[in-house]
TrEMBL record:
InterPro entries: ArsR-like_HTH (IPR011991), WH-like_DNA-bd_sf (IPR036388), WH_DNA-bd_sf (IPR036390). It comes from the Bacteria. CDD domains: HTH_ARSR (cd00090). Pfam families: HTH_20 (PF12840). It comes from Streptomyces syringium. Residues 1-20 are annotated as: Disordered. This is Helix-turn-helix domain-containing protein.
Length: 191
């Protein structure tokens, strides 16, 4: 019996079907948090069609493993949760596990889009995907990242303030990765 089995809602060891269902529930919760920003177990249950107890359990498990955190709130019984915030000014690198999870969810969402885009309303059946390579200094790379953040700033409050969203607004994945390209072999200089 594993530690996760002891923490399961029933206290019994899980079978493979239960493990797959738990993955589905946790993925759905993470997707929902990415879409709406913060959510309580009751709100998640209403949106996802699971029980509030099941959502509460999996939200706590996601928090225990460092994927989400309790959001600030004014007290009371309701516990809102949000995706874990990373402080870019903190010492040390961002937790690799969360980065891997986020990239996996991004890739999964991209594949879902590709396979189901024909089901989207006609006005939403296109995407804006692009990539580029630019020769930058570390300072220039930081300035480019800051410029992207500034470009997105006018839209950030819509996540927490649904009434600020235009009627036809939908959640859109915005993924930016700036990183130096390393040489393929040790003898290449990267120039």
């Amino acid at each position: 019996m594993t530690e996760d089995d002891l923490d399961s809602p029933s206290g019994q060891p899980r079978d493979t079907g239960d493990a797959l269902r738990e993955h589905d529930v946790r993925t759905a919760l993470l997707d929902l948090l990415a879409e709406v920003g913060t959510v309580t177990a009751t709100e998640a249950a209403a949106r996802l069609g699971y029980s509030s107890g099941l959502c509460s359990f999996h939200l706590r498990q996601l928090a225990r493993h460092g994927h989400i955190e309790e959001a600030p709130h004014s007290g009371g019984r309701a516990r809102p949760w949000r995706l874990r915030q990373h402080d870019p000014g903190a010492d040390g690198p961002a937790e690799d596990g969360f980065g891997d999870l986020a990239r996996g969810l991004e890739d999964e969402s991209w594949q879902r889009w590709l396979s189901r885009r024909d089901q989207a309303p006609a006005a939403w059946r296109h995407d804006e995907a692009f990539s580029a390579v630019a020769y930058l200094t570390p300072e220039e790379m930081s300035r480019v990242a800051d410029a992207v953040r500034r470009a997105l700033a006018p839209y950030r409050d819509r996540e927490q303030r649904p009434l600020a969203r235009p009627d036809d607004a939908r959640p859109v994945a915005l993924i930016t990765r700036l990183f130096p390209l390393l040489p393929d072999t040790a003898d290449e200089t990267g120039r």
